[in-house]
Amino acid sequence: MTQHGSSLNFRDFVADLLATGDAVDVRVPVSPTLEAGAITRRVYDTKAPAPLFDHLTEGNPGCRILGAPAGLSGIPGETYGRLAAHFGLPRDTTPPELLERLITAMDAAPMPPRVVSTGPCKENVLTGDEVDLRHFPVPLLHEQDGGRYFGTYGFHVVRTPDARWTSWSVSRTMLHGRNTLVGPAMPQQHLGMIHRMWAERGERTPWAMVLGAPPAALAAAGMPLPAEVDEAGYVGALVGSPVDVVRTETNDLYVPANSEIVLEGWISPEETAPEGPMGEYHGYAFEESRPQPVFHVEAVTFRDRPVLPICVAGIPPEENHTIWGTMISATSLRLLRSSGLPVTLAWCSYEAATCWMVVAVDIRRLAETGMTERQLADSVAEVLFGSHTGWLVPKVLLVADDIDITDIDQVVWAMATRSHPATGHYLYPEAPGIPMVPYLTADEVRTGRGGKTVVSCLLPEQFHGETRGITASFHNSYPEDVRRRVVENWARYGFGAPGPRTR
Ligand SMILES: Cc1cc2nc3c(=O)[nH]c(=O)nc-3n(C[C@H](O)[C@H](O)[C@H](O)COP(=O)(O)O)c2cc1C
Ligand SMILES: [Mn+2]
């Protein structure tokens, strides 16, 4: 018996999406060479259901692909439904509800995984010379990509040499050879940190990669939890049940027992190979490839008719925005709150491609602190930019909490009408940051510092807890009885069904 439910069983997650009409069983033959990628890109753009490619024209028969596993949903009232399903939450869960849930689990005691003797991921076991990754339908996702990507929605499993800390983390892997992959392991990310510990001893890093993992585990592996925190224990606390894990065949690591595909092997201490380019989270595909570590695969285990999930990175919204951005929002919000700053919510607008985070400020509490705008900006920068989560966030926008920061229209309006061009921009040239941000200078990329800003969209009087004037809107500009009459009579006026939202 394996554990069930959409948060802890990827196969159940897919079945639930199909049952709710938020996935489509694509039975016509589809090529993993660009066609599956193109369909998935269009699915993101149109908020169409996730495509389950049943019949791929390359790779062993029976292998399947799920595109857009956390794309936004076009089902009314369920925009974040596919994301919420990763955590077993109702499909109408709102972003603030989800963030509170993620934060509560960070404050709870970890629930370590439970070791079981076997599981569905052992239905097929290939070792040694039997391993040939090219037998899977490894997709070419964009025409400009430097290769086929096996791992775009899976996580790496590595453990420190002293076995104190096991890290699960999402980072892409490109097919390199029959039994090798190549992909980034940035030194600031936990995969890179642990790989370095082994490499400094001159040893290979024992490694596994999990594809079609329990969705809650995948999301936690894409979450910048602090160093030394096991993502597995966090997942247990988050879903209220330990994750069932099994031992790998070859290297004494543990992987979720019902994963679709598990790759086992090691990372070379010194060997690199060119990786990329690939269409990326910020929305661009650049031309260069870069030398990255090589991952050697010594065993592959997989479920019957395995489903390989893919993220086709690029302009929003895809999983780098809906999963990564949301998880960054949660860790950042908890950090800002626990530092005592008057912050009510933090949200990486999906539309901003995980390149900015909007922070909502409680202006009454702000007034009590007596802070100036510069003091507030500097405090936010100090708390955030030096942290594991804030390293990922180049721009922070501060807005008053009358704005719903999960609504990009309101954020744009606040920025346009409240941010003073002369005084509202605070720069942090010494702050460390992720070097992938497109606008960075060559120097900033080299030093890993700068290009970071806090933009204040707070009006001067909001530092005294006040907002001049009122928002001229449907909600504020009419008495309640008039609003009610208008809503009730909407169809009678000749407008058809009432609009989805009003402000
Ligand atoms: C779909 C997806 C793709 C990602 N791709 C990468 C990647 O290729 N490289 C990377 O360093 N981080 C990538 N991330 C972000 C990391 O998973 C994230 O920063 C996470 O916190 C890393 O784990 P760690 O905090 O344990 O180091 C991706 C996240 C998601 C959700
Ligand atoms: Mn980690």
From TrEMBL:
- Active-site residues? 280
UniProt enzyme class = lyase
What are the EC numbers? 4.1.1.93
Give the 3-octaprenyl-4-hydroxybenzoate carboxy-lyase-like Rift-related domain ranges: 116-315
Instruction: Please list the residue ranges annotated as the 3-octaprenyl-4-hydroxybenzoate carboxy-lyase-like C-terminal domain.
Output: 321-457
Residues where prenylated FMN binds: 170, 172, 189-190, 231, 388
- Residues that bind K(+), according to the entry? 168, 220-221, 223, 231
Assembly information from the UniProt record? Homodimer.
The task this protein performs is described as: Catalyzes the prenyl-FMN-dependent decarboxylation of pyrrole-2-carboxylate (P2C). Can also catalyze the carboxylation of pyrrole in the presence of elevated concentrations of CO(2) or bicarbonate.
**Protein name per UniProt:** Pyrrole-2-carboxylic acid decarboxylase
